[in-house]
């Protein structure tokens, strides 16, 4: 450390000596300030020499306002883009309290400087950091007092407003992905405090920098929150606010355009977009996709700001940019490149979000060549990790339902690249590539051709045991399609030991819910129309004891898949793989299940349970007789009379049909029992009903009776 | 230019000065917009007194606290006379965020400081400074490293002024650094980096050049008291804006 720096720290440390001469102290502080600003190496040097403790001491004890302003400023710089600085300040809760109390100071400069420091601390705090030192600042921004203070800062000067808006955004960001309820509460509180309205009021007078920050905040505050979206839409007559956002979505600046479009997307997805605006997204989407081509991004007008006066223009593509006298700036371009890069990363993420729930928008996006551009990004070796991840995610969404889009991706020879990216070093890229494979493999044609040719199955045995949960979950979801009956990879997947792993996940109650659900789903698909050896292999993996464990599953979604798995296992079992014991166990399971209040109203689970009964009834006499004497039989009659669900009724009819259809010694007794319970009358009523399938099945059943 | 006879078609493609002026008169331009355009130029170029005067006389409200112009100009003049530290001090007082969040600008200021040391012949100080201050910043940015290497190689020349890198030590380099800093301050104050007026004049120039291919019309000669040229005197099409 240089002598002057040591000297400056000395002066601060012995400030009592200089009480009469505050200018020396001020000078020393300003020297440190000007040394560290912009210079991470110097910041670390000072931190190593105990500077933060010295400055916190000043912050807590100094009375002189000029000095205090400089102190907050230095603490801000220590925490700017430096996690260690932010952490060190947060470790002293008093320091944070003092900074917070300065937000209510009379001196604007003091407020400005303290707010900025809090902003820097939040900006350097790693997202989702669980370090307890950050608890205090979190309870400030999410607490009632913090919300009140931040809202009051929006009434100060422009610079303070901007800082407050950024802090509010920083409060929302960590909640976006996995903490929806907390986000919703925070958004709604900021709506009630008036912060949302204040931020919105800064949008109209278009001062480029503040406007952009406002758009960021409005986007975060409207995300997944119908209350806030509804408020925005209905705030003034004639949709003034919404029309402003639509206007901004047509701005010259790509960032402004994208943010405004995202806000409209938020409003659309919370079902708050009023009918006159419903075609807006269809029109905006191609405009946003156009921003994706590198040429548009590089044009000199690409980052033009909306001007303050309506007559002024942003120049045109063919006019040479810049070079106007003293302010010409040859370096501005580099800033633009960063901006372009971040825009390029954000557009695919936007695309994925906006089209996710609308097939119509998926079509619009596909028709304006978005897939070609996205494939271009994943092909480009220079693409950043973020861009790769977002482009893959967008491809996955665009191909989730449209065969045309899958074909387009396959024909652009992108599948080998996607398969390669399954092997990326970045978990988020691997997971996104898995999502792509899942969408593409929904097409039998792609599965049999391009996907098979690219050896898509090979990486999966490794992917389903990946250390990253996100990768495991997405890999298991893709496997569901790769192991289905008509998949050419099915045998390969089974040979590679995938089944063993899936059973292991399913049986492990400690395992994450999503992993178990996807495993059950994949096993179900694997057993669909499966050959005897596959069924045998599964029963070898699941012992009888484990089968009993599975029947005690408490999660309805997983239970549904397990039942469906049994249904596939039992289907047309002519080789006696399913022993008497297996069958009786399964009948007991269904008995428990249909009488369990948790499931009795869950039609999806009930339906699968009935299919299990139905398939059991088609296999063995002993099981048929067990069913007809169990409470299941009474329940079937109950469903026929009372259920509102046609599928459940049809499945019930199937069960009865199988009980009377198969020739065996005890057949007559079963028919008698069914007749005695008044089933014929009930089924006769079904024949008169309006549901065609139900009619046909009922007639078939009556025919079986009359033949006997 | 080759001489050829004027044909009927040529005459049809001509617009007289009178017709042109009539057409120009038809276009409504608001006085307010024009005043804003002037104010925008004065503020961004840093003419504080002119802006004050203009504000008083035209009633056009300045979009920014005019005192901030003084700071901006003080920073500019500090950099232009080579006092980089003074410049940094005022910027950090004005807004400490600018240099903390703009690594490229910070690097260029440090680079300018290095150039000033070399110019003063303080070789060992320059080397220490480059090693201690600039080199760490280059670790993450390849472009910075290139620029640093170029600056350091100034030391290899006996007569820098005659070296191929002489542009680094000229006043224009200080001006460049000062402009970059000025632009960053303007952006931080929600201002455009460049005034709008020159862009509009460029647009005019471009439109006139395009129109030249289709019509003969009285051009506005920007470097010539902004007079309309007459039809027979339109050869002066290379007029420059600055």
In short:
The complex is a heterodimer of chains A (708) and B (242). Chain A is mainly alpha-helical and 708 residues long.
Q: Please tell me the total number of domains of chain B.
A: 3
Strand content of chain A: under 5%
The largest sheet of chain A, given as strand count, sense and whether it forms a barrel, is: none
Number of extended strands of chain A: 0
Number of separate strands of chain B: 2
Task: Identify low-pLDDT runs of chain A.
Answer: 295-334
Regarding CATH, which class of the domain at 1-142 in chain A? Mainly Alpha
Structural classification of chain B? mainly alpha
What is the residue-averaged pLDDT of chain B?
Answer: 84
Distance between the termini of chain B: 26 Å
- What integer is the average pLDDT of chain A? 86
Q: Rg of chain A from C-alpha positions?
A: 33 Å
Describe the global form of chain A. elongated
Total of helices of chain B: 12
Which class do the helix and strand fractions of chain A yield?
A: mainly alpha
InterPro entries (chain B): CRA_dom, CTLH/CRA, CTLH_C, LisH, Ubq-SigPath_Reg
Domain CTLH (chain B): 68-125
Protein name (chain B): UPF0559 protein
Pfam families (chain B): CTLH, LisH
């Amino acid at each position: 450390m240089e002598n002057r720096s040591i000297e400056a720290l000395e002066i601060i440390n012995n400030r009592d000596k200089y009480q009469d001469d505050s200018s020396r102290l001020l000078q020393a502080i300003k020297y440190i300030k000007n040394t560290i600003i912009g210079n991470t190496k110097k910041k670390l040097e000072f931190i190593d020499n105990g500077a933060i403790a010295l400055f916190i001491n000043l912050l807590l004890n100094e009375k002189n306002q000029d000095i205090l302003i400089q102190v907050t400023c230095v603490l801000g710089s220590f925490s700017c883009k430096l996690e260690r600085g932010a952490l060190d300040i947060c470790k002293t809760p008093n320091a944070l309290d003092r900074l917070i109390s300065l937000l209510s100071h009379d001196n604007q400069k003091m407020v400005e400087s303290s707010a900025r420091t809090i902003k820097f601390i939040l900006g350097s705090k790693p997202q989702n950091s669980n370090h307890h030192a950050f608890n205090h600042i979190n309870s400030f921004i999410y607490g009632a007092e913090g919300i009140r203070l931040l809202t009051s800062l929006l009434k100060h000067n422009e610079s303070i407003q901007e800082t407050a808006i950024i802090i509010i955004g920083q409060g929302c960001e960590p909640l976006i992905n996995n903490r929806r309820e907390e986000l919703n509460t925070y958004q709604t509180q900021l709506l009630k405090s008036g912060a949302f309205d204040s931020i919105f009021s800064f949008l109209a007078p278009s001062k480029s920098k503040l406007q952009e920050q406002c758009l960021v905040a409005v986007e975060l505050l409207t995300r997944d929150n119908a209350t806030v979206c509804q408020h925005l839409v209905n705030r003034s007559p004639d949709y003034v606010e919404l029309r402003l956002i639509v206007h901004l979505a047509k701005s010259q600046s790509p960032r402004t355009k994208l943010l405004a479009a995202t806000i409209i997307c938020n409003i659309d997805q919370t079902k708050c977009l009023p009918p006159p605006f419903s075609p807006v997204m269809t029109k905006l989407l191609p405009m946003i996709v156009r921003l994706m081509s590198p040429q548009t991004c590089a044009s000199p007008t690409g980052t033009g700001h909306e001007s303050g006066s309506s007559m002024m223009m942003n120049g045109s593509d063919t006019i040479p940019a810049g070079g106007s006298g003293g302010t010409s700036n040859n370096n501005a371009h580099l800033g633009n490149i960063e901006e372009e890069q971040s825009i390029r990363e954000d557009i695919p993420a936007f695309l994925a979000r906006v089209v996710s729930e609308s097939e119509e928008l998926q079509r619009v996006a596909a028709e304006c060549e978005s897939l070609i551009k996205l494939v271009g990004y994943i092909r480009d070796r220079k693409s950043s990790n973020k861009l790769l991840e977002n482009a893959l995610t967008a491809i996955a969404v665009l191909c989730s339902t449209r065969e045309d889009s899958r074909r387009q991706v396959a024909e652009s020879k992108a599948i080998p690249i996607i398969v390669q990216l399954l092997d990326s070093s970045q978990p988020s890229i691997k997971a996104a590539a898995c999502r792509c494979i899942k969408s593409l493999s929904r097409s039998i044609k792609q599965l049999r051709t391009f996907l098979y040719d690219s050896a898509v199955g090979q990486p999966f045995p490794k992917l389903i045991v990946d250390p990253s949960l996100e990768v495991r979950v997405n890999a298991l979801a893709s496997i569901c399609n790769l192991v289905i009956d008509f998949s050419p990879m099915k045998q390969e997947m089974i040979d590679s030991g995938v089944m063993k792993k899936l059973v292991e996940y399913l049986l492990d109650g400690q395992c994450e819910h999503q992993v178990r659900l996807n495993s059950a789903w994949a096993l179900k698909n694997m057993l669909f129309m499966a050959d005897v050896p596959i069924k045998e292999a599964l029963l070898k993996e699941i012992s009888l004891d484990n089968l009993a464990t599975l029947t005690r599953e408490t999660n309805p979604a997983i239970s549904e898949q397990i039942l469906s798995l049994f249904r596939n296992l039992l289907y047309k079992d002519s080789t006696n793989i399913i022993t008497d014991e297996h069958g009786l166990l399964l009948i007991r399971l269904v008995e428990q299940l249909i009488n369990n209040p948790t499931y009795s109203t869950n039609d999806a689970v009930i339906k699968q349970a009935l299919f299990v009964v139905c398939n059991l009834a088609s296999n063995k006499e002993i099981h048929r007789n067990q069913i007809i004497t169990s409470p299941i039989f009474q329940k079937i009659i109950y469903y026929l009379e009372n259920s509102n669900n046609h599928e459940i009724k049809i499945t019930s009819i199937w069960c009865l049909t199988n009980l009377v259809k198969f020739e065996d010694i005890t057949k007559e007794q079963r028919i008698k029992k069914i007749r005695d319970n008044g089933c014929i009358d009930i089924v006769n009523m079904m024949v008169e009903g309006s549901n065609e399938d139900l009619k046909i099945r009922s007639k078939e059943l009556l025919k079986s009776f009359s033949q006997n | 230019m080759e001489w050829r006879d004027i044909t009927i078609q040529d005459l049809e493609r001509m617009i007289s000065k009178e017709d042109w002026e009539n057409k120009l008169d038809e276009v409504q331009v608001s006085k307010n917009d024009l005043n804003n355009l002037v104010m925008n130029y004065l503020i961004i170029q840093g003419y504080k007194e002119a802006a004050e005067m203009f504000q008083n006389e035209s009633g056009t409200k300045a979009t920014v606290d005019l005192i901030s112009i003084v700071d901006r100009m003080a920073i500019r003049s500090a950099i232009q006379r080579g006092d980089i530290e003074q410049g940094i001090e005022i910027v950090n007082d004005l807004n400490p965020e600018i240099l903390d969040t703009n690594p490229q600008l910070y690097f260029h200021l440090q680079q300018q400081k290095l150039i000033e040391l070399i110019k003063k012949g303080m070789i060992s100080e320059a080397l220490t400074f480059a090693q201690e201050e600039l080199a760490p910043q280059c670790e993450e940015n390849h472009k910075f490293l290139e620029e640093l290497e170029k600056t350091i190689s100034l030391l290899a020349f006996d007569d820098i002024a005659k070296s191929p890198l002489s542009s680094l030590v000229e006043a224009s380099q200080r001006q460049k650094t000062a402009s970059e800093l000025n632009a960053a301050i303007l952006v931080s104050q929600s201002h455009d980096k460049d005034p709008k007026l020159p862009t509009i004049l460029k647009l005019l120039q471009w439109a006139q050049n395009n129109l030249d291919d289709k019509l003969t019309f009285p051009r506005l000669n920007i470097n010539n008291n902004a007079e309309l040229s007459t039809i027979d005197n339109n050869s002066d099409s290379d007029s420059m804006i600055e």
